[in-house]
Amino acid sequence: MLAAGDGSALDELYALYAPRIYRYTYRMLNNAADAEDATQETFYRVMRKSRDLRADAAFRTWIFRIARNLCIDRIRQQPLVDLPMDATVGAPEEQTALHIAVRQALNELPQEYREPLILCDVEEITANEAAEILDLSVPALKSRLYRGRRALKERLGPAVEELPREKHRHPKSD
Amino acid sequence: MRSIDIRSLIDLYLDDELPVELASEFMEAMHEDDELAAEVAARRKMHDLLHAAYDADDMTAEQYMRVSQAVRRRALELGYSWRRWQGPQMELPLNQDQPTLLSG
């Protein structure tokens, strides 16, 4: 496949990972323009750092780690904006309000809880991979994930108990 | 099972990480304990809600093209060759059948 040429290899790599990296960075940064910049910069760094990739390392873990580091740098420079209003366009009004409340609740969690929740419960990345991306042991990752879930549920309060279950698109089926 | 707080197992149960026997004991406990069942249901709803809240985050076609063109331009500027990655020690993760690279 690669023998077909560098351009097609780059295109395929981009097609496979750009949408996921964009979604992840958007979820981390809550801002479409920042997510676009972060996705672009992630691929620049992939090109620059490709020699650092160990032969036994999973590419997905590596590229997510690059994206994550970019997001952390961005958040340090510029704290998260409050309401991601452009994230729920087209949804019914009541759901939109609820979804904004969920995103706001997640934003307000400490970063050590927020990141495992985004990776494991939103991105559906395995605990092992998420631990590697975050440079944590698997037990430490799970501990933060479980605490984060409880903290999020406490913040959302009765809204979670009273609602019927929502149907959602599973990222694995993308 | 009885000597520990069963609520501490909720996350493991939801993540399918309980051993089979313990999982079936947990399910039995849910039948007997309405509060436990309600807590599990609430956690599931929260998980669904999280997905729904973040469902509209896809890259638009315009963003996809814009970033793609920028990346290609940079690749040309850098004279970047993806063939550098090739060799006995490295394969680019382009095959969608590779579960370790692409499975969710």
Output the CATH class name of the largest domain in chain A.
Answer: Mainly Alpha
Q: Quick one: overall form of chain B?
A: elongated
Number of strands of chain B: 0
Helix content of chain B: 55-70%
The pLDDT mean of chain B sits at 77
The secondary-structure class of chain A comes to mainly alpha
Q: Which structural class is indicated by helix and strand composition of chain B? A: mainly alpha
Structure annotation, total helices of chain B: 5
**Integer-rounded radius of gyration of chain A:** 17 Å
In terms of quaternary structure, what is this? heterodimer
CATH topology of the largest domain in chain A: Rna Polymerase Sigma Factor, Chain: A
| Terminus-to-terminus distance of chain B | 31 Å
Total domain units of chain A: 2
Number of helices of chain A: 8
Rough outline of chain A: globular
Strand content of chain A: under 5%
Query: How far apart, in Å, are the first and last alpha carbons of chain A?
Result: 22 Å
Rg over C-alpha atoms of chain B, rounded to the nearest angstrom: 23 Å
CATH architecture of the largest domain in chain A: Orthogonal Bundle
Explain this structure to me?
The complex is a heterodimer of chains A (174) and B (104). Chain A is an all-alpha fold. Chain A has 2 domains: 1-81, RNA polymerase sigma factor, region 2, helix turn helix motif (Rna Polymerase Sigma Factor, Chain: A, Orthogonal Bundle); 90-164, Arc Repressor Mutant, subunit A (Orthogonal Bundle). Chain A contains 8 helices and no strands. The longest helix of chain A is centred in the N-terminal third of the chain and has 24 residues, at 6-29. The radius of gyration of chain A is 17 Å and the shape is globular. Residues 1-5 and 169-174 of chain A have low confidence and may be disordered. Chain B has one domain (1-77). In chain B, helix 2 (20-32) packs across helix 3. Helices cover 58% and strands 0% of the residues of chain B. By secondary structure, chain B is mainly α. Chain B starts with 9 loop residues before the first helix and ends with a helix. Chain B has 5 helices and no strands. At the A-B interface, helix 1, helix 2, helix 4, helix 5 and helix 7 of A face helix 3, helix 4 and helix 5 of B.
